[in-house]
Amino acid sequence: MADLVYRKVMHDLKQKIMANAFPNKRLPDERSLSEQYSVSRSSIKRALKILADQGIIFKKRGSGTFINPLFMKNKTIFHYEGSNLGITDSLKSQGMTPKIKLLSFKVIPANEELQQDLFLSPGDFVYEIKRLRSFDNQPFMIETGFIPIKIAPELSQDIVSGSIFNYIEEKMNKRVTRSFLSILASPSDKTDQELLNLSVNEPVGIMEGIFFLDDGTPFEVSNMRLHYKYLRYNTFVMLDDY
Amino acid sequence: MADLVYRKVMHDLKQKIMANAFPNKRLPDERSLSEQYSVSRSSIKRALKILADQGIIFKKRGSGTFINPLFMKNKTIFHYEGSNLGITDSLKSQGMTPKIKLLSFKVIPANEELQQDLFLSPGDFVYEIKRLRSFDNQPFMIETGFIPIKIAPELSQDIVSGSIFNYIEEKMNKRVTRSFLSILASPSDKTDQELLNLSVNEPVGIMEGIFFLDDGTPFEVSNMRLHYKYLRYNTFVMLDDY
DNA sequence: AAGTGGTCTAGACCACTAC
DNA sequence: TAGTGGTCTAGACCACTTA
């Protein structure tokens, strides 16, 4: 995957942007980039499109391509980034060592809400997986996930003690490529305070979401309660009507 | 704008999909579409890419292009797409009556951070606008906005007591179409507690963002502190590329 | 093996911005 | 007018799925 032309260009430009290789906050024009990288202008455009979709750069027709200044900020702090679906990979890409502690692992009948969210029928069962995620001995997230047993019949205590998404991709040869997320804030409860080392007036950030496989099947409903210092959800909204 | 090839194809296909013109939930292959529409395959791909980004279709390499069954079953899932950036409109569409109380309105020199975020030069000035938003007599948001005076030289106390975005669109004939948002949680401070009727252990949700005009010009830097019960940010994440 | 989507090229022409 | 990004084409070859 990593040998694709547009991906290489995209990654290289991203790296250069972060290394402040363009102090004037402006990228070379597309035709020059095409020459520099010895690739077609189309490939340059494709790489730039991705960076633009991620909000890292923006283009002004007739004028040039510029770096979004807000993207450069807050890079020193650890945070969960909206651009990655999996928590494990999200942490790894930031050089963190993720750790997972399994709190509980059960099979329960899906209630009505889960039936709706996961397109299940009455009587269907789901795994209920509670986990505590940490990095560098700092717990930052309590995660409760629900997965239909018929989608992943072979889940074991061993598997769910690691990255479930990686298991799905490597062993089941499917990809988790979409999710609906809700993000909100809430006072912490006793469990939060104990597990996440929070004082009573410190809140949690909550992410609720449904994750989908690449064929459109809803795969997991997840409720994530995060230490408030470790949630920063970045998102780029475009209203350019297609 | 509507005469672009890929847009026409995209709209036409979208309409056909909704009219159930593909009962087998499968689109013709790209080469056939290219012939049917008498456009290049690249243009077909571009149209399909947009539909895929919107979650309407998904592609399977070697197999074909298929209609997302979820799109037909539950269209509310994709609801965030039509949503508006402006708070005022966002509330109105939910049947709420928004109210704005102007807390302060000043002109100050842009500090270094604002200069960067808003593409300003040293010595440039910005408006600093602090407002409290309520609906049905329930205050829910403290908003601090910074807008370059050179972008909107005619801002008055009267204007900023209402919807600034609406003013921009109606009087200045520009559109706010993009924003870069960070969402996080934080304990409330004394001001939050007073203005938003929060107790000490109740948090705020924070949205920090830069809003851009449709030509890419950064228009406003905004810091929004929300009563935690009134922040729920919904988003749809796709990882198909990258 | 046939058919599908994915990647990439080289180049033409258009639309907008800056000077 | 010169330079920028935007659109579009025609075609080559690759990677994957299905039979």
TrEMBL record, chains A, B:
Q: Where is the HTH gntR-type domain?
A: 3-70
Which Gene3D superfamilies did the record assign? Chorismate lyase-like, Winged helix-like DNA-binding domain superfamily/Winged helix DNA-binding domain
Q: Origin organism of this chain?
A: Apilactobacillus xinyiensis
Q: Does the keyword Transcription regulation apply?
A: yes
Q: Which Pfam families match?
A: GntR, UTRA
- InterPro entries membership: Bact_HTH_transcr_reg (IPR050679), Chorismate_lyase_/UTRA_dom_sf (IPR028978), Tscrpt_reg_HTH_GntR (IPR000524), UTRA (IPR011663), WH-like_DNA-bd_sf (IPR036388), WH_DNA-bd_sf (IPR036390)
Its recorded name reads: GntR family transcriptional regulator
What the entry lists under SMART domains is as follows:
HTH_GNTR, UTRA
List keywords of the entry alphabetically.
DNA-binding, Transcription, Transcription regulation
- What PANTHER family does this protein map onto? HTH-TYPE TRANSCRIPTIONAL REGULATOR GMUR (PTHR44846:SF5), MANNOSYL-D-GLYCERATE TRANSPORT/METABOLISM SYSTEM REPRESSOR MNGR-RELATED (PTHR44846)
